[in-house]
Amino acid sequence: MSLFKARDWWSTALGEKEEFDQGCLCVADVDNSGSGQDKITVGSYMGYLRIFNPHPVKPGDGMQAEDLLLEVQLRDSVLQVEVGKFVSKLCVYAVSGTLGNVEHGNQYQIKLMYEHNLQRTACNMTYGPFGGVKGRDLICIQSMDGMLMLFEQESYAFGRFLPGFLLPGPLTYSSRTDSFITVSSCQQVESYKYQVLAFATDADERQETEQQKLSSGKRLVMDWVLNIGEQALDICVVSFNQTSSVFVLGERNFFCLKDNGQIRFMKKLDCSPSCFLPYCSVSEGTINTLVGNHNNMLHVYQDVTLKWATQLPHIPVAVKVGNLQDLKGVIVTLSDSGHLQCSYLGTDPSLFQAPKVESREINYEELDREMKKLQKIIKESTKTQDILPRSEKDYDDLRITAEVSPDLDVVSQAIDSEVRAEAVPSVTVKITLQSRLAVQKTKLSICVQPPLALTHDQFIFDDIESCESKVVALSVFLKGNCPPAELEGSAVASYSTPTDLNPEGIPRVARCKFRLPLRLICFPAQPSKTANHKLTIDTNKPPVSLVNLFPDFADQSDEDQVNVLGFQFLTGSRITLLASKTSQRYRIQSEQLEDLWLITKELTFRLEEYFKKQNSKDFTCTFSGSVPLQEYFELIDRHFEVEHVLALSNSCERGAYGFTGQVIQVVMILCALSTLCLWTGADHNLALNSSLIHIILMLRLNAEKFEELLSERAIQFRAIERRLLTRFKDKTPAPLQHLDTLLEGTYRQIIALADAAEENQTNMFQAFTKLKSATQLVIMLISLWQKLSTDQVAILEATFLPLMQDTQELGWEESVDAAISHLLRTCLSKSSKEQALTLTSQLSIPKDTSRLKKHITLLCDRLAKGGRLCLSTDTNIQQTMVMPGGCTPIPESDLEERTGVQDSTTMFTSHRHLTKQKSKTDFPQGALEEAEKP
Hints:
Layout: E1 7-13, E2 25-28, E3 39-43, E4 48-52, E5 61-62, E6 68-73, E7 93-98, E8 107-112, E9 122-128, E10 138-143, E11 147-152, E12 155-161, E13 171-174, E14 179-183, E15 188-193, H1 194-199, E16 224-227, E17 232-240, E18 243-250, E19 253-257, E20 263-268, E21 273-281, E22 286-293, E23 297-302, E24 305-311, E25 316-324, E26 327-335, E27 339-344, H2 364-383, E28 398-404, E29 426-435, E30 440-448, E31 452-454, E32 458-461, E33 469-478, E34 488-497, E35 506-515, E36 522-525, E37 533-539, H3 546-549, E38 564-569, E39 574-579, E40 585-590, H4 596-613, E41 621-622, H5 629-656, H6 659-678, H7 692-729, H8 739-786, H9 790-800, H10 812-825, H11 832-835, H12 850-864, H13 894-901, H14 911-921, H15 925-931
Parallel strand pairs: 1-5
Antiparallel strand pairs: 1-27, 2-3, 3-4, 4-6, 7-8, 9-10, 10-11, 11-12, 13-14, 14-15, 15-16, 17-18, 18-19, 19-20, 21-22, 22-23, 23-24, 25-26, 26-27, 28-29, 29-33, 30-32, 30-34, 31-33, 34-35, 36-38, 37-40, 37-41, 38-39, 39-40
């Protein structure tokens, strides 16, 4: 039992599918019983009027039949319910009771005293002794178009339009100042005197008493006005100690104002409010305020001090305080769905007493056995590295499957593709959702790796019934002008399963992956005899004809394609695949290292599928050549270096030229950078030693420069705008002093900078995509080289590919460097001295890539010496194994490491040398010449 939970004294649910608002609740002695006990009057938008007199037998009881005094359905909706001295009897509807002579109790009836047919749509109303009248209350109704209509009992008095009206706001009446107070759509609290309302009309228009016409009313003059800066939800006037205060509930604050509109105090609310009620605390001599919010909470404030907070079972739209069954201060709340509750604060005393525990002797041997058993369970659980526990269920409430069409679309669905090709193909993917149980709030999201794109990526379904299936179709195509790093996609469905305890549902997720065809991004082409980069994959099975492996690319009638195939990406790159006739080897060659990845992965995947169909379970692929770290490091440097050149050019241009010249120069350099990123020449001895990781790092630095320049130009643009507005508002014309020319020039500079930043972002994305492809290739070669297990390959992928995208806040270089440093310090460490090293906790853009290349080289060397990748630090004993011919041992001492890293070519042989050597041993000369025939 919580002390801060509202104690339920009496509650009930009103009707079915009825709606209520803040004006639908009223607590007062509606039948003039004279006993001082209030009744609860509730009206609904469905036209029902109900009067309750709760008297539960014990706190928390529901409604009994005799609690409902009256229930009647009116002809129109009930917008607001008030109790006052409207007629000589009681109110517009008079409630009378007849003493009962049987056990059914008293009988109550409602009688219509009078009614007014309104010519305008009503919004809300207020009442009071307008004009100082004694013994009776008058009614003021505000219409939706801003007209105040005043009624004196059975007669219509007059109507006035509010000045500057747009939307109606809350309305109340202050008897102390004889004023009507409302909040306009301009977020201003406005006060109008009743006398001003009464006399702001012509004498010939005062004759309308029974009906109001659309032309009645005049513009008024406000008594006072206060801008509160937010829309108001409710307004109320409270009189206490010969003074009155105006309370206004806003969207984020509630205000207390004096009679003249001055702010007495205000309170900023932490949650979005839904209703409030200021009331006088006679015992404490202060005014308290009840504030309900959308977090099912009811706060009690004394001025601006929070005195109490209590939890409600619903969101209140109206709150009142009344005296029910001799219980004073009962809080009555009403929700928008009709949950009516009477509650009080605090808690009941707990009468529970814990029973005495029987004393028994402790069996230490049994405790020792239990302790050993628990320690064994803990030790076994710490060995597994799963982040989330595996589910024991072999089924899901919602099963999701994806089916990729084996053929490309006849009519391509590619939209806004940037690929410079004659035709960009697309393929259809069908996603099927099969529900085992009834699920709700289902949202399907499909994701592919950029630069691939989808025609539709999100689908929203209503409630899916049991054993019902939903099928959606979409198309995938290549949108960016570079090959993707992955040909896999995923479909994720989020849904909720309702339960008895949680009708809203428990959120769950179902996921499936699908593989896209290689024909989506490339097409058959003539093989190329020359290439800069070549890789050889060894197998333990006889060679397979490429016609059988790639039937979608090879021509069955062409015998030359049995051992050689050509692939050309839509972006222009060409890759050649050769199969040896005598040995069990396959060679992939291309002009760029990163283009080898997709064909190599597709080759290994199709070989595994081919031998799986042949029921061959011992098929393996290996790689005995040298890992192309030198070419990989060139990609890393290219990613870093161009960004550095751009940063230097920005700083030089800022000091040597004007800003316009600087923007033009930056754009020119960016265009040159784009050409360099996409250039695929054969000369590796570039003057700038360009490489891909250098390019990406430089692009990140350049993005920071663009942000700084854009910020400076934006500040200058706003300053010029302020100067111009000051000149234009001046009554005395003054010369602009070329401010308009400066404004136009600054605008052009901002546009040029924005275009350059966007192009920089595009180049950064393309460079990172190429780096991801090359990184995937290096991971595959290392895994085939060292015959790593699936878990070790997963650790290697998490180390080299920790990010989905590269940004200037967190980039690939520092993330990979930190991950590799952690592996070298834990599972691949040589001694306890390396394990004691502490790594910096802050990641920042490095100055160069020498440290990263050194750590990558050390990682390969430790793996070559028998190191194994694992997440636990217990297994750090390295096993000795024979290194492949392409690797040279890394010096053990720090001095030798520093000297050795300066020239990485001494550790790993050049790839061209490897190619020449392999051409003599792996592939006979005659076989190669025969395979390379066009």
